[in-house]
Amino acid sequence: LCTSIPYYKTVIIMSFECPHCGFRNNEIQSGEAVQEHGSEIVLRVQEQVDLRRQLVRSEYATIEVPELELVIPAKTRPGEITTVEGVLERVGTGLSQEQDRRRELDPESAAKIDNFLVHLRKCLTLSEKWTLKLHDPTGNCFIQNPDPRHVDPRCIVSHYHRILEERKLLGLADDDVEEQERTSEWKSFDDAKREVLHFPTECPNCGSPCEVLMKPTGIFFLFLLLIQLAHILSVMNGEISS
Prior knowledge:
Order of helices and strands: EEEEHEEEEHHHEEEHEHEEH
Number of domains: 2
Distance between the termini: 74 Å
Strand content: 25-35%
CATH class of the largest domain: Mainly Beta
InterPro entries: Znf_ZPR1, ZPR1, ZPR1_A/B_dom, ZPR1_jr_dom, ZPR1_Znf1/2
Pfam families: jr-ZPR1, Zn_ribbon_ZPR1
Domain Zinc finger ZPR1-type: 1-145
Keywords: Metal-binding, Zinc, Zinc-finger
Organism: Haemonchus placei (Barber's pole worm)
């Protein structure tokens, strides 16, 4: 089933249920092409609304919770649609299985898991604030903004150039490639907005070689700049006339 998620992209939802044993499996695949750059989303979880945020990850995504020293590597699970809370709940459910038996066979490991589950529950109840990092080389990951009309104050989205291993993982580079083309350091969108680009060109008036400088800017600030420039020119023209 091809589904469009608001403020995100199109995904393909697949569902399977065995009528004999009751086994169920749900997964998603991106309906979009691999993006030009990989993406990393960092969410600071502080309120209940953060736990309920919808999360979309591909099978190539890595999830990390530094406060728990928890890392869910890529390719360990298929792509899925879940919630921020659901990520930790799934981890807790998986670790709780066979814990009684583990206490009998390996008490030391069971004690470490019990201690980890205590901290995990504190994160779920927000007794401890925590951070979720979603790193996806396909660029097709997503964490919902509860108020899409405004900038998300607790979520940072960055884009980066893929390393060679990630390109091989996605089939964008041959396995026998050893050297990676040199790319510029990955930047966030804010870094890109502050960058000034330089282009060689010729003066349209006299043909002399010169340089064009380009920089993204907000329309509002550009409007103020034009007003200030017009004011300066009018003052200069007045002084010249007098």
